[in-house]
Amino acid sequence: MASSQILLQRFVIPQNPISKVGFVSCCPTSRLGYGNTPFTSISWSHSIQKHRAGFAVRAESEPQENAQNVEQEAPPIDVEEEQEKEKEVSESKPARKPRVKLGDIMGILHKRAIEASEKERATPDIRTGDIVEIKLEVPENKRRLSIYKGIVISRQNSGIHTTIRIRRIIAGVGVEIVFPVYSPNIKEIKVVNHRKVRRARLYYLRHKLPRLSTFK
């Protein structure tokens, strides 16, 4: 009796699901030889075993573009919406105030005090060599105003504490008085005459003739 045998096939399945599966043609393991020997069941089975067919499976990888398309596509980003959100956030934040350094605090306070004093009484530009007339209020008697007239021999700038020194000859004696420019007791400062001088301090007038410091 002739025995039949089933041809065995070998498959190799790729692990990558993206790759394609291709089949290779059947390749005989050996050639069928014919001889003068008679066919029997044993010889028939032996010849079939020699001519078993082998099948191989080959996986073909797809290009990278197809593999990337399989992945989940990210949602498109709208640039205009992001810019609008950034603008809204920047507008909602209040503007940062400039920092004030410790050294500038006194300068700011002096500036504010000078502005408040000028609102109550206008202060003229007083320079060294000017002849000025000052009306000073006496604290003991507010109804009486003392008038002082003289030449400015020096000026010391120190913010709200700025002072001027006035010199005048009274009864043959030289008198010098220091007045704070922004004092609330001074009701009026009037520049009678401007004189051009070359020095910032006219202390040399103390040793000059009295007529240079005498005024009507």
Automatic annotation (TrEMBL):
Family: Belongs to the bacterial ribosomal protein bL19 family.
Entry's transmembrane regions: none
Coiled-coil parts of chain: none
Entry keyword annotation includes RNA-binding: yes
Signal peptide: none
SUPFAM superfamilies associated with the record: Translation proteins SH3-like domain (SSF50104)
GO biological processes: translation
UniProt KW keywords: Ribonucleoprotein, Ribosomal protein, RNA-binding, rRNA-binding
Start-end of Basic and acidic residues biased regions: 84-94
GO MF annotation terms: mRNA binding; rRNA binding; structural constituent of ribosome
GO cellular component term of the entry, any: ribosome
Region of interest: Disordered: 59-96
Name this protein carries in UniProt: 50S ribosomal protein L19, chloroplastic
Role according to the record: Located at the 30S-50S ribosomal subunit interface and binds directly to 23S ribosomal RNA.
